[in-house]
Design goal:
With 165 residues, this protein is mainly α. It has a single domain, classed as Up-down Bundle (Growth Hormone, Chain: A). The protein is built from eight helices and no strands. α2 packs antiparallel against α6 and α4 runs antiparallel to α5. The longest helix is centred in the middle third of the chain and has 29 residues. The chain starts with a helix and ends with a helix.
């Protein structure tokens, strides 16, 4: 496995890093972007603030529902295929929402498009281990990153205070 890692060129590593960065930015825009237009939805579209906030939360709900399944798919089918599929689903949901908004669609139609975009966005979150490293390390475990995050949170001073007290 080490020989395989050494044979990857610097150009390929940079290409993989750029692709991973684009995937991360796409996911972030698809899931968090609506929150930035809440004031415009309220002012120009007449949407209540609570409805706009719910609409902003819908992509994150979609991401949350599928992130574990995307992680399993990444481990089983590989990053390239799954990442492409994920980005296509995210793109389809985002474009559908854009077209629906341009045509004056209602809340439910906008929410459905955002949900589809969120459902597709999960793979880019679980994918970065292999792509940013530039090679497969042979450690294909879905829970490894989650476990590291739990350990990191448990070491946080605030978590220690909660535990003591």
């Amino acid at each position: 496995m080490a020989d395989r890692v050494d044979k990857i060129s610097n150009a390929r590593r940079w290409t993989m890093l750029v692709c991973s960065l684009i995937a991360a930015m796409t996911t972030t825009c698809a899931t968090a972007g609506v929150a930035y237009v809440i004031p415009e939805l309220h002012r120009a579209q007449g949407m209540s603030l609570s409805s706009a906030a719910v609409l902003a939360a819908v992509p994150t709900i979609g991401l949350t529902l599928t992130i574990i399944a995307w992680g399993a798919a990444l481990d089983r089918f590989g990053e390239r295929r799954v990442l492409i599929l994920s980005l296509l689903i995210t793109l389809a949901g985002t474009v559908a929402t854009l077209v629906a908004a341009a045509n004056g669609a209602g809340f439910a139609v906008l929410a459905a498009g955002l949900l589809v975009g969120g459902l597709g966005a999960g793979a880019a979150n679980g994918e970065r281990r292999g792509t940013t490293a530039g090679a497969d390390t042979g450690r294909r475990r879905c829970g490894g990153r989650c476990g590291a995050n739990v350990r990191r949170a448990a070491r946080h001073p605030g978590a220690q205070q909660l535990h003591r007290g």
